[in-house]
Amino acid sequence: MNAITQSKEERAEKLQGMGCKRKRVEDIRFVQGRGNYVDDLKLPGMLFGDFVRSPYGHARIKKIDAAKAKSLPGVLAVLTAADLKPLSLHYMPTLAGDVQAVLAEEKVLFQNQEVAFIIAEDRYVAADAVELVEVEYEELPVIVDPFKAMAPGAPVLREDIKDKTDGAHGKRKHYNHIFNWQIGDKAAADRAFDKAEVTIKELISYQRVHPCPLETCQCVASFDKIRGELTVWGTFQAPHVIRTVASLISKIPEHKIHVIAPDIGGGFGNKVGAYPGYICAIVASIVTGRPVKWVEDRIENLSTTSFARDYHMTTEIAATKDGKVTGLRVHVLADHGAFDACADPTKWPAGFFNIVTGSYDFPVAHVAVDGVRSASPRRPIASSAGWTSWRRSSAWTRPNCASRTWSAASSSPTSLRSAGNTIPATTTPP
């Protein structure tokens, strides 16, 4: 027999709510040192990988000389883009419809970008070999200011797509432009501003942040040549994504790729997408027939993995003299780095910026977001979305913007909120 259906009150009591105690099930083994992390994994015959990285933010690669590194005892191979290109492994797809370099081919586009991959018998030998690889660079002008990314004569970053006119969400305005995404009613918002008694305009920058998980990104790849199966252990927040990318790159069917995410020391979106270390470890294991481990250090994690935010929001508010808001316009300049690797939903390339109005009842609103490239690492993974986007998106509610509205409308914070501007608690969102 089915259990008797619980009443609404009984279900609420069982579920409890905010502030209640929740029994944690994993704490005991963690505090006893019995956690199971990627770097704890040790397989027979395991090799180790490490990267040669660029000291420049934008430079052309003239020459790579790996002879000294290859001659170091314990080094099995040094992979460069020249080795990966014949197999079409030098670029991999991103979650945003872009591609990103596995190993830099002709140019580096941000500081510490991956240039070569060392495969060695020992982790310390691999690190020593990195110092022996000689790379000749021709330094190029960099773009570190997103406001200058689309200026006339700005340096061309992505030469591989500089002549491409169509982006993932419409026409591109410039060779460093990625997308323009809009939502709302522009014509109605413009009319509201034409009729407004009071208007204010404020530039609000939400600075770049890094998720900085306690455990850095890392993986172990092991290819079984007999069964034709690949197993990858890694710090993956989205194992199915890694399996799909690995299949696209390696041509191994997805049903023969096993992705295992053991305990993870924090992620915060930083570990959603695929990084060159994962692909290089997979390639190295396929080539050598042995397991290959790659573990990045803290500087590598901070300087080359996905960051978040870096949104510059020009916010305009229309209101009456009594403090009643009548319209909102927001234009966002979003620095998406050299490779657009967002893990946002297809419809929302700027995360959940459609909630920019927050809990306030704007009759009309319009938002436009322009994504641009700069000499920065890959643009945010999932940390650009989720609940944190509410803080980022509700630009107009920030103190400096709201206070200007209060002043312009000769209103107080209290009257601004009580002037019919908030959405009633009983209203169901559309």
Strand content: 25-35%
Overall geometry comes to globular
Backbone CA Rg: 25 Å
Number of domains: 2
Assign the CATH topology of the largest domain. Answer: Aldehyde Oxidoreductase, domain 3
**Overall pLDDT metric:** 87
* Cα separation of the termini: 39 Å
Q: CATH homologous superfamily of the largest domain, by name?
A: Aldehyde oxidase/xanthine dehydrogenase, a/b hammerhead
Instruction: Going across the biggest sheet, name each strand in turn.
Output: 3-7-1-16-13-14-15
Give unreliable regions as ranges.
380-391
CATH architecture label name of the largest domain? Alpha-Beta Complex
Helix content: 10-25%
Number of helices: 12
What is the total tally of β strands? 19
CATH class of the largest domain: Alpha Beta
Helix and strand layout, with pairings?
Elements lengths: L7 H8 L11 H5 L15 E7 L5 E7 L1 H4 L4 E5 L1 H4 L6 E3 L5 E3 L5 E2 L5 E7 L2 H8 L3 E6 L26 E2 L2 E2 L5 E8 L1 H10 L2 E9 L11 E7 L4 E6 L4 H12 L6 E4 L15 H13 L3 E4 L2 H7 L6 E9 L5 E11 L29 E8 L15 H6 L5 H10 L4 H6 L12
Parallel strand pairs: 1-16, 14-15, 18-19
Antiparallel strand pairs: 1-7, 2-6, 2-8, 3-7, 4-5, 9-10, 11-19, 12-17, 13-14, 13-16, 17-18
Key features of this structure:
five-stranded mixed β-sheet, Aldehyde Oxidoreductase, domain 3, alpha+beta, 12 helices, seven-stranded mixed β-sheet, 2 domains, Aldehyde Oxidoreductase, domain 4, 430 residues
